Amino acid sequence: MYSYDTEAYGRIISKFPEALFIHLVRHPRGTCESLFKMRQGIEKGGGSAGEFKLDPDKVWCSPHRKIVEFLATLPEKQWLRIRGEQFLSRPDDFLLQICAWLGIRNEEGDLEAMKHPENSPFARMGPMNARFGNDPGFLENPKLHEYRAEVLSLDGPLSYGKGITFSEETRHYASLFGYS
C-alpha cells in the first residue's frame, strides 16, 4: 500500500537511507483479473470491497509509475526489479539472486524454508478489524505451488466491465518491465 503514497517513500528513505527495495511486478492483465477475483472472494466471505473501481491505470499503472520515479532517485545498487511470474516459475534461481543481492546466507535448508509461506504469521486471516489484509485465495491454501506462467497480452478488453482496455501509459510501463 506504500506504493500509492508518494510521501511514504520520503519517510522510508529518510529513516533508512541505505534501504534496499525489491520492485515486484506482475503483468497488468494478471494483476487486474486477480484483483477482480479477490474482490469477489472478499464479498463472498462477508467482507466489503467498498467502491473500489478496477481501473488498470489506477490499480496497476499509477503505483508502478510512482515506484519507477522513486527508484530513479536511488543508486541502482539499492533496488532490484523482479517479475513475479518468473520468480514463481523458478523460485530457487531468484531466491539465490535475492540472497546474494541482500548479502544474506543461503546455506542448505535456507532456500527450502523460504519456499514455505504457510509457516508465516501473515499466511492467516487478519484480526477482526483487518480480516482481508491478504488475498483470500492465497489464505485458503497459503503454499508455494508449482507455477507455469501463462502468456498474457496487453491487447483486448479485460474480462470485467465493458470494454476496459489498457491505456498507452499502462502499455508503456508494462513494456518497460518486459511485458507485451
Provide key terms for this protein.
180 residues; mainly alpha; Rossmann fold; two-stranded parallel ribbon; 8 helices; globular
Radius of gyration (Å): 17 Å
Shape: globular
SSE arrangement, N to C: HEHHEHHHHH
Low-confidence stretches: none
* Mean pLDDT value: 88
* Structural classification: mainly alpha
Q: Write out the strand line-up for the largest beta sheet, numbering strands in chain order.
A: 1-2
Number of domains: 1
Termini separation comes to 26 Å
- What is the assigned CATH homologous superfamily? P-loop containing nucleotide triphosphate hydrolases
Describe the 3D structure:
The chain has 8 helices and 2 strands, in the order αβααβααααα. It has a single domain (2-176), classed as Rossmann fold (3-Layer(aba) Sandwich), CATH 3.40.50. The two termini are 26 Å apart. The protein is globular, with a radius of gyration of 17 Å. α2 (28-44) crosses α3 and α3 crosses α8. The model has no long low-confidence stretch (mean pLDDT 88). It has a two-stranded parallel sheet. The protein is mainly alpha-helical and 180 residues long.
